[in-house]
Amino acid sequence: MSMWFQNYGIFLFNRSTDHEPQRVAPALETSLKSLNTDYLDAYLVHFPFRITQANEPLYYKKEWLVETWREMVKLKEKEKAHHIGVSNFSQKKLEMLMEEGEAPEINQSEIIGNFSRSASLSAAK
Hints:
By secondary structure, the protein is an alpha/beta fold. The protein has one domain. The chain has four helices and four strands; from the N terminus they run βαβαβαβα. The chain has helices spanning 21-35, 62-77, 91-99, 118-124; strands spanning 13-16, 40-46, 81-87, 106-108. The chain has a four-stranded parallel β-sheet with strand order 1-2-3-4. The N and C termini lie far apart (37 Å). The relative contact order is 0.16.
């Protein structure tokens, strides 16, 4: 295992774009192998929608988000990711996860020009 980045104070994180619960851990393992490490400092659920088929709209169900989040919590418990969080979640979707138990430690939010997620930032406090 090459942990050269620890000597330089680098914080390693990645985002999972695969929201099939059974694919969350394998996706992380692929990242770990690519980075030649045993863990990430942070692993985030990116973009809270599931893509099903080509030409179908993006959509989500609460149970999908919750199942995916439970898999993320397991990765933290196994110390594969020291911190877990979300990326680009609305306030409503963030609150869905917080109702289920362990709250995300990181809420990476998109802020571009006049577009911001101030409600989701407030919910995360």
